[in-house]
């Protein structure tokens, strides 16, 4: 095992790898990338808070819509009941005060006229 480790150590010193293959970043660029990643993580947490807040607002809106619709239904029912009450309380044709007034005048004039015709 020792021979293998020493062989690997010597082999790695003889054939060193290139530090960066492809594109290499400076320390400043690496720090900027790290800052950008943390900023994105913070934005993600803020976005999730905003989404949760919007979901709560949506639930409250739906509850308020249900409450409003029941209020409107109750109001429509009250209007129907008031219309029925108005129909019930509206005087009938035979309860017209002008009709009774005219009938009173006629009931006074006709007997007086008939009594005047007897002579």
Report on the structure:
The structure is a single chain. By secondary structure, the protein is mainly alpha-helical. It has one domain. Helices cover 82% and strands 0% of the residues.
Short description:
This protein has 119 residues and is mainly α. It is 82% helix and 0% strand.
**How much strand?**
under 5%
Following the backbone from N to C, one meets helices and strands in this order, namely HHH
Number of domains: 1
- Tell me the distance between the termini: 159 Å
Query: Rounded to an integer, what's the Rg over CA atoms?
Result: 49 Å
For the secondary structure, the number of strands is 0
| Largest sheet composition | none
Helix content bin: over 70%
Q: Estimate the global geometry from the Cα principal axes.
A: rod-shaped
Summing up helix and strand content along with how strands pair, one would put the structural category as: mainly alpha
Which stretches are low in confidence, meaning pLDDT under 50 for 5 or more residues running?
Answer: none
Helices, by number, come to 3
**Global mean pLDDT:** 85
How are the SSEs ordered, and which strands pair?
Blueprint: H1 2-14, H2 27-89, H3 97-117
Short key terms for the protein model shown above:
119 residues; mainly alpha; 3 helices
